[in-house]
Amino acid sequence: MTTESAMTFHPRPTAGTPAPWAFPAPERLTLANGITVLHCHRPGQQLVAVDLVLDAPLAAEPAGLDGVANILARAFNEGTDTLTAEEFAGELERAGATLDAHADHPAIRVSLEVPASRLERGLTLLADALRAPALPEDEIERLVANRLDEITHELANPARRAAKALYAALFDGADRLSRPRSGTAETVRTIDRAAVQAFYQAHIRPATTTAVVVGDLTGHDLAALLEGTLGRWTADTAPPAVHAPVTADDKGRVIIVDRPGSVQTQLLVGRIGPDRHDPSWAAQILGTYCLGGTLTSRLDRVLREEKGYTYGVRAFAQPLRSAADGSGRALLAISGSVDTPSTAPALADTWTILRTLAAEGLTDSERDEAVQFLVGVAPLKYETAGSVAGTLADQVEQYLPDDFQAEFYRRLAALGAEAATEAVVGAFPPDRLVTVLVGDASVIADDVRDLGIGEVTVVSN
User: Fold this and answer.
1) Which homologous superfamily does the CATH classification assign to the domain defined by 253-460?
2) pLDDT value of position 1
3) pTM surpassing 0.90?
4) Order of strands across the sheet with 455-460?
């Protein structure tokens, strides 16, 4: 007996042809007070993102005041000449806006997100925070205290401790790159309102500021709107900061940061290499992804899946600091953690993977999977106004052309396995890697010495 279904089935939908995608191209304008503006109209993105790049690099911090740029960045949220900290927070909330800031080696970055319908109010609050920050003494003291608490937690975090040791090992002590971005306990304790105010007056000015505005700008006369808000900010002019070249000592060696009794070892293996200005950057990103960018990468396949040493190991390239002449370098690193007894075996296998990569190269299959992901995920990665604005701001502080990101994806899609192999092998030469291990030196030191990957030094945590 045949029973007919009472349900009506509709045809299964089929995938359409994907629309061509490219990273958005910004337009430029300059305000009367000297602010350079990059803007992208993104229909439908009702949350507008505004990213500012303030020409206040960490290298400009006065001697003994490492961390003052970070305290200033956080203080931009603490009121203006007309609003207390509480009132300023309330006004942001009423506008549906968020305002964040942080300091890094190239610049201070300030980010505003606000609904398009309240863009003028959001820009007014942002402009007031930059034009006349209150920098109240009690709030500066609170921010300093908060930062000191953070430092205590960072020193207890193996990954943060490894990064601190690697930067100190790679860079000369006179280079600001060698010291923690947000300062040490010794330097942060000396920061007061006078120091923050002096740093603000010396470095924060419109003529050396770039603003990036991304979102649905329908109905807005953007030039007039910006002139009436950010354009009201005035200050003396000064030449832009000059960034020193990045140099490092990447002689192969091992530094063990001793943590007695630790059941895991944090690994951080790194050196410096080409950054985004180098023609090999796209190939380096592709090769690094194949080496350690995903669960199917070579490092994870061996150290995680086959050997069970770790929950995951990653390889990455992070731009450090660029100069206006296009010179710059990036940190190239491998990071992860393993159980203590597996420290030396994991390092031995890592070096074997690197040597095998140099001898045999990447396969076409590895290249195809990496390109498919890196290029295919880009439209999702840049779906929000904030992600587009952040990347354009990155390009500004790294002195890159406006079409850099779009050109990067075009290059990436055209690369072959041979080019990716050459770039990643050049990025991670086994004899030019500085290895930092945060773990129990009494258990791991002798076995690591036996590997012969460089002189071993043990330091206290």
Assistant:
1) Metalloenzyme, LuxS/M16 peptidase-like (3.30.830.10)
2) 54
3) yes
4) 313-322, 328-339, 264-274, 434-439, 253-258, 455-460
